[in-house]
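Ticket #4471: structure output looks truncated?

Reporter: J.K.
Steps to reproduce: submitted the chain below (223 residues) through the standard prediction queue, then opened the result file.
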Amino acid sequence: MSGGPGSHIVWDWNGTLLHDIDAVITATNASFAEFGFAPITLERYRELYVVPVPKFYERLMGRLPTEAEWAVMDDTFHRYYWAAAENVGLAEGARELLRGWQADGLTQSLLSLAPHDRLVPLVHAHGIERHFLRVDGRTGPSHTSKAGHLVRHMAALRASGVTAARTVLIGDAVDDAAAAAHVGARAVLYTGGSHSRRSLESAGVPVVDSLAEAVRTARELAE
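Returned output as attached by the reporter:
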């Protein structure tokens, strides 16, 4: 089954196309160590993770971090994360799925909360930029949710004939589903990234365990 004409996927990057959860855990624990917090396991991370990220730290600390604490934690996280990101691979089957969707005459784009100036070179390094109508990373502060960024992303895609009604966002966070709902698009959430299945299911959208299943579901939703 293939999505109908005009079907579009907006891909998330971290934890979705990029299988970087191990690098994320390493960087998170480095940021925790700055304040003497015990390391967090992958399972606990997935149970507690939420966007905007300061709310995640609140769940762990019992309070929101101060501005000074957030600045240190954010800087430490990104320093460790980007040191590891160059050696991180794409999720299983991602390259083939991108190629197959495009070969069917359908469109796709990439929207990430990773900094735009760090995202674009990394996407190019993986050799997949040709599959996307556009690639947008975050501009502005890091403690934001995706909804506002998706509004701007969809507005920029309008000239290419992309409509929210025929768009499915594939991501790994409850925030991705909230962003899709905000613009009138659908969402499919993938368990290979930042959230546990139980957490993802709270969003009330399809939850899948592979990107292949995510794309199959997106084809059906975008019909």
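Triage note (M.O.): checked the attachment and the full token line is present. The chain is about 45% helix and 15% strand.
Status: closed, working as intended.
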